[in-house]
Every structure is written in C-alpha cells, then in structure tokens.
Amino acid sequence: MRPDFEELDYCNTPMGEITLRRRMEPRLRIEVYEVKLGDEFLMSSLFTDGEVALAKLVLAACEAGPLDVAVGGLGLGYTARAVLDHAAVRSLLVVEALPVVIDWHRRGLVPLGAGLSGDPRCEFLAGDFYARVNSSGIDPRVPDKRFHAILLDIDHSPRHVLHPDHAAFYSPDGLRCLAAHLQPRGVFGLWSNDPPDEAFRDTLAEVFSSVEAHVVGFHNPLQDREATNTVYLAWGKKQ
Fold it and tell me: How far apart, in whole angstroms, are the C-alpha atoms of residue 195 and residue 197?
C-alpha cells in the first residue's frame, strides 16, 4: 500500500528549491500531484482545466494541419497532453527551463510522463524559453523554424512572473520576437491565473491584428467555489 504522502523528488535549481510530491486528498479520495518552488505552489493535478483549455483554444484557432507546435513550460504535462490529443498535430516541442522536470516525465514519476515520453511526436528541450524566443530559433536544431502554434504556460500571469527577467517578454518588443517564430497565420496562446488584463490585451494588439481573452471557469473542490483562469489568443502579426 502506498503512503498517503510522498516527496517524490527534490532538487536545488537556479530558481530555487523545487519539490514534487504526491498525496492523498482525503475529502476527494484521490491522488494529487503537486509541485512547489520554495514555499510557493506552482501547480497541482487538481487544477488543470486552464492548461487543457489553453491547448484546445489555440488548436481550434489554427488552420488545418499538419501542425507543428511549441510549448513553453512542461510542468505536470497537461498542456502537452492536450496538444498531442489533437489529431492534426504533427510535432510538439516542449521547452522546459528545469531539466529535473523533464526527468520526472522520463522516469514516470508523474501520471502523464510515460505517455508524453513515449509519443514519437513529442520532444523535450531543456532550456530557457524566453532566451530561445530571442534567438534565431526556438528549436536550436532547426534554425528559423516557424510554428503553427506557440503556447506559453510558465508565469502566473503577465504581471506576476516567476523571475524578473521574464517581464520583458510581455512588452511589445518581446511579443514581436515571439511572433517572428510563428507561421504567417500562426497562433500564440498564453495561460494566466489572473482575470483578463485590458492593458495586456492592448499590448498584444500592438503586435497582432486579432486578440481574444477567454475566461475558463472550473470548480475548486477544496474551497467548494468556482474559480477562473484566462487564456489569451493572438494571431495575424502586424506588419
């Protein structure tokens, strides 16, 4: 019998101490996987609706496949899994800053790890997504490759970033760098834990001709209330 609580892995990283743990949630009688960075909760398998919606909304806005997709941030893998569940996806590159997170998936320490690692369409790249956006190619093996969709799920929101260096990405110049890695009719999607931010929508509209903000509602079973995330979509780079 498995214990009700396990610390599955722990590692010191440049961003701080990261911990993967598994616990039984007694009220729901289910296993929950959680990731903490220092004292801050980064993600939980209890709350994945926003991550799944990010993939579904972006891919629904894309033209017909086959589609080459890039995702910034691996986490517990729910965005990546939802991308691969789309029949038109030909390839998926997931850029993750912390190699230990990729290792969790390859070792099968997280529920979706084996499926993602074993899918021939899916590749993991250990690296800084924001630095790759500012380079000649997100995929270093294929310089100047352009993607049909780029999804980002790293920071809590454009205003609540995990590291101060990330903030420049959410400026018009940072977003123009991102747009340069998209196909002409490619779609950019961003997950946010905050409500829609009109100022950020205006920033997106400086770079892209079409911008949408979708509120994703879901039930929080721990607090027995409704909660929301935001998914931003942007496409049609302005010339």
Answer: 6
How far is it, in rounded angstroms, from Cα 6 to Cα 166?
32
Structure tokens at 224: 């027995």
CATH H-level, domain 48-237: superfamily = Vaccinia Virus protein VP39 (3.40.50.150)
- Reference 31, options 88, 87, 109; nearest CA is 109
Extents of the domains making up the chain: 48-237
User: Quick one: pLDDT at residue 28?
Assistant: 83
Q: pTM (2 decimals)?
A: 0.95
* Average pLDDT, integer, range 95-115: 97
User: Sheet of 16-25: strands edge to edge?
Assistant: 5-13, 16-25, 30-37, 40-44
| Confidence band of 1 (pLDDT split at 50, 70, 90) | low
CA 18, 21, 27, 30 torsion-angle sign: positive
Task: Determine what percent of the chain is predicted with pLDDT higher than 70.
Answer: 100
